[in-house]
Amino acid sequence: MRKNYVIIVAGGSGSRMNSDLPKQFLLLAGKPVLMHTIERFTRATSNPKIIVVLNESLLNYWKILGKEHHFEIPHAVVKGGNSRFQSVKNGLEKIFQLEADNLEQVGIAIHDGARPLISPNLIDDCFDALYEHQATVVAVQSTNSVRIGSVSESESIDRDSVWMIQTPQTFSAQVLKEAFLQSELASFTDDASVVEKLGYPIHIIPGDHKNIKITFEDDLKIAQLYLQ
Predict the structure, then answer these.
(1) pTM of the predicted protein model
(2) Where is the site labelled Transition state stabilizer (predicted)?
């Protein structure tokens, strides 16, 4: 039977939130955003083991928050790196150590800590898709008209062919092990782009427009409304 893991990447800063506190620690419905995110994965029947990647300077603060909010969901914590690529790589190395003799039976999701509204059913869909595909992303089609180019010259494109990428992005462990042996490139904007560089096709799983990423202050207000 396959064993599932999720790496929840939570190393962002609060620079775009007008806050000194990183967005994953801001309160949403009375508790930190990151705690909501972790809880969503515990509700999934795919039952992934949880690894949280945090900036080293915030490890102790996370422990304090856990005590304050009586947060007891089992999860491992790994130190983050200087980039998302390095942070994910650190999380993967933890899994590779734990499952060194069983990688062919391991599925791994990678999820943004600041996406606290992910549906447990969608999480399950992502892991189920690994039985047919080695690399998947959650995405929603654009609801807006789309133009590509610069401010001085652009052209319209068919919005039905435009997908807005979300997380989780889910992969077989063996594919990720190969992909993250590569040197980091500026073109690696997400985990799928790392895998795609090796030539693996990326399968799209239709996502959920409610699966927003907390980036700006208004996002927190929207998330609060969705939780009511």
Answers:
(1) 0.94
(2) 16, 23
